[in-house]
């Protein structure tokens, strides 16, 4: 056989081997993301089907309505734990915003920034400008919307609230149109982003500091395969503490999925193009690239979906009452919004394999009460850490999804109060603010979207083999 022929056969054999390897990797990933989830009796396939055909179309339609598209948030609160805000993702580049008096409320300066002396590399400066530009919040609101918000606030203030929401009443709080600020890639990454998530995991997941979560570059053991020892420790915890870790991990996975699915692919003539980035997805979730950690993260996403789904099914009686309306001032549209919401609640009730929250906090009453308080304090701390996110758009969605999950936990911890709600008068036992309602449904909408995006990535991976 000629040398060229041998080279051709060798090349063909290598191509076949590569195809087989990629096929095995994809098959391995799919095999690890099937079947029954830990700590509950629900399988992933049932969630996929239920979400795709029942929940996703309706939740998307609901979130486009005025009541749910506007979220009131304070993006100006300083980080209470460290000084660095890390707006720029590049190691030696820090972007300083213009003086507050020249910056619109809630938006950091885009083109009028000055750079530190350390930023002397053109590429780094360009990357910094891009991260700052993509991470800025679009606060465009019509005069009609602004006038409506005054009416909304007047209506909300007349309701029977029993807790003072300082943040909502701060002069720095503003309404943000979520449809103008979709969650997607912003360039916010690196040490600053890792520091935020590291603080959340290390300080709030009921674990000793000597035990590091897998693939944590800020841990002393970075580079070692400490996943097995970590999960041995996790399985040794009580159900409640395992659940808490899975909720945080699921939230992290969901956010990462959104960034992979709406990645900045290219920018031509000043117009960015967004779409799925398979390489980025594999970097975060592939079982080989993540040493088996990726599928665990995605399973925790499904677990979080079940928790928030359960909360929606439990809170339905609160909204069933005639006294509760979703006020925007347009009676006809408000009625349509509530009807769609109640329809979604009916769908959540029909799901046959809900997580059984009664298995949590079911032991000694005194210990259960103490553990609930720990949950509350840990979660409150996580919401404060979100004020340390250095990208405004990332901070917006981080705060919203954290509040949404916190509202879901509040619902699950208040079952008796919800069951005893009066039909025609405000309840002193259980109350949801407009912001909690908006956050709850938008957070669940993000999880629903994550599961859809995950199905899309599975198809893309198959087609790329």
Automatic annotation (TrEMBL):
The gene is ERO1B. Its main location: endoplasmic reticulum. PROSITE patterns: PROKAR_LIPOPROTEIN. Belongs to the EROs family. The active site is at residues 391, 394. Disulfide bonds join 88-93, 128-163, 391-394. FAD binds at residues 184, 186, 197, 249, 252, 284. It is a peripheral membrane protein. This is Endoplasmic reticulum oxidoreductase 1 beta. Pfam families: ERO1. Residues 1-31 form the signal peptide.
């Amino acid at each position: 056989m000629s040398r060229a022929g041998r080279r051709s056969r060798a090349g063909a054999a290598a191509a076949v081997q590569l195809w087989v390897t990629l096929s095995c990797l994809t098959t391995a990933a799919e095999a690890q993301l099937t079947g029954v989830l830990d700590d509950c009796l629900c399988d992933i396939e049932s969630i996929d089907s239920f979400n795709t055909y029942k929940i996703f179309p309706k939740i998307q339609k609901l979130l486009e309505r005025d009541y749910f598209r506007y979220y009131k948030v304070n993006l100006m609160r300083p980080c209470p734990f460290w000084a660095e805000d890390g707006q720029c993702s590049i190691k030696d580049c820090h972007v300083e915003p213009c003086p507050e008096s020249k910056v619109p409320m809630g938006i950091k300066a885009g083109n009028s920034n000055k750079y530190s002396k350390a930023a002397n590399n053109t590429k780094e400066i360009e990357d910094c400008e891009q991260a700052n530009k993509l991470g800025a919040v679009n606060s465009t609101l019509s005069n009609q919307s602004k006038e409506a918000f005054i009416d909304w606030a007047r209506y909300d203030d007349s309701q029977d609230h029993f807790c003072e929401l300082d943040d909502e009443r701060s002069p720095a709080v503003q309404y943000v149109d979520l449809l103008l600020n979709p969650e997607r890639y912003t360039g916010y990454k690196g040490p600053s982003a890792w520091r935020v998530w590291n603080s959340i995991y290390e300080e709030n997941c009921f674990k000793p500091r000597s035990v590091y979560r897998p693939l944590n570059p800020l841990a002393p053991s970075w580079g070692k395969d400490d996943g097995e020892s970590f999960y041995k420790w996790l399985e040794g915890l009580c159900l409640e503490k395992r659940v808490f870790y899975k909720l945080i991990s699921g939230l992290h996975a969901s956010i990462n999925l959104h960034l992979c699915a709406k990645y900045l692919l290219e920018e031509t003539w000043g117009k960015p193009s967004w779409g799925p980035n398979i390489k980025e997805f594999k970097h975060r979730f592939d079982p080989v690239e993540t040493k088996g950690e990726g599928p665990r993260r995605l399973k925790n996403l499904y677990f979080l979906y079940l928790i928030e789904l359960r909360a929606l099914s439990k809170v339905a009686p609160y909204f069933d009452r005639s006294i509760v309306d979703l006020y925007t001032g347009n009676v006809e549209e408000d009625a349509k919004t509530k009807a769609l919401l109640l329809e979604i609640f009916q769908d959540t009730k029909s799901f046959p394999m809900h997580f059984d929250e009664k298995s949590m906090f079911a032991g000694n009453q005194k210990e259960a009460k103490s553990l609930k308080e720990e949950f509350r304090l840990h979660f409150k701390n996580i919401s404060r850490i979100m004020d340390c996110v250095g990208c405004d758009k990332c901070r917006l969605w981080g705060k919203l999804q954290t509040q949404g999950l916190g509202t879901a936990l509040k619902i699950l911890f208040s079952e008796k109060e919800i069951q005893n709600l009066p039909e025609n008068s405000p309840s002193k036992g259980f109350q949801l603010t407009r912001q909690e309602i908006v956050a709850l449904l938008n957070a669940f909408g993000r999880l629903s979207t994550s599961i859809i995006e995950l199905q899309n990535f599975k198809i893309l991976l198959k087609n790329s083999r």
